[in-house]
Write a structure and sequence with these properties.
By secondary structure, the chain is an alpha+beta fold. It is 24% helix and 37% strand.
């Protein structure tokens, strides 16, 4: 499945509205107050599209997810974040968050923020896994107690990348990032190191982190801290091996990106 992210275009209010309704349907009767998503109309969506404030995620050119990006005074706010239920767990959410964070940098912001309703602990944990941290509790109008939390990510802190191969080499780092990287030894349980034959590789193969899910398997490597733009350069470097970048929990407890081959 090929996932791409782009800005929604005029005339695409229908797909965006459909994504929102399907993605938020599970919260009907659960959230108090009810989600304002269901007050969105074609007119309000088209206005947001005209302001270039909606990102659209497509799977093989079919719209499956969206995120609203609203510049504030000192940060970019990410709202109306949703993926069609049947397309979850394929990395669409991670790609949209990353695209929104890139949009924040393009706007000159170093911080992104979003909100999560009370009771949606799994969703809150998902954002925390992606580097978001608690800011404050807030209340909807007319409610005496807090009803949601605000989370933020400081983009200046960068991203964690786990390397088990050539990106640990200083010469490769200089050619890819223009600098050498400082890292910490770490490991990834549930993966085993394999070799995949590739004609494009100078040695005829690439190393691969094959996911097994077994605690008996473990890959040893180095965890680096790099900027978001450097992470995209890393994607370009690894492109020949047909890797997919995924976010995993390392044995140190840190979350980090790891490259793993995708069978087509």
């Amino acid at each position: 499945m090929k996932l791409t992210i782009r800005k929604a275009k005029p005339g695409e209010a229908g797909p965006v509205l459909d994504i929102l309704h399907q993605a938020f349907r599970e919260y009907v009767g659960v959230l108090d107050p009810p989600s304002a998503v269901f007050r969105e109309t074609f007119k309000t969506i088209e206005a947001a599209i005209a302001a270039q404030g909606i990102l659209l995620c497509l799977a093989n050119d079919y719209p499956i997810g969206c995120a609203f990006c609203e510049p504030k005074s000192d940060h970019l706010y990410i709202g109306r974040f949703g993926v069609l239920p049947e397309y979850r767990h394929y990395g669409a959410g991670s790609k949209m968050l990353e695209a929104a964070e890139c949009a924040a940098l393009d706007h000159g912001f170093s911080v992104t923020r979003l909100t999560v309703r009370f009771g949606l602990d799994d969703l809150k944990s998902y954002y925390e896994f992606h580097g978001y941290e608690f800011v404050r509790q807030l209340s909807h109008e007319g409610y005496s107690g807090p009803t949601y939390v605000e989370l933020e990510k400081d983009l200046r802190r960068g991203e964690s990348l786990f390397s088990y191969g050539t990106l640990q080499d200083s010469d490769v780092q200089i050619s890819t990032f223009g600098r050498t990287l400082a890292g910490d030894a770490d490991s990834a349980s549930g993966f085993r190191l394999t070799q995949l034959a590739f004609d494009s590789s100078p040695v005829g193969y690439y190393f691969n982190a094959e996911k097994t899910g077994s605690d008996a398997d473990r890959i040893v490597g180095t965890r680096f801290r790099i900027g978001l733009e450097e992470l995209l350069r890393s994607d370009d470097y690894e492109a020949d091996a047909d890797y997919e970048r995924r976010l995993v929990r390392l044995d140190s407890g840190a979350s980090a990106w790891i490259y793993s081959h995708v069978s087509r």
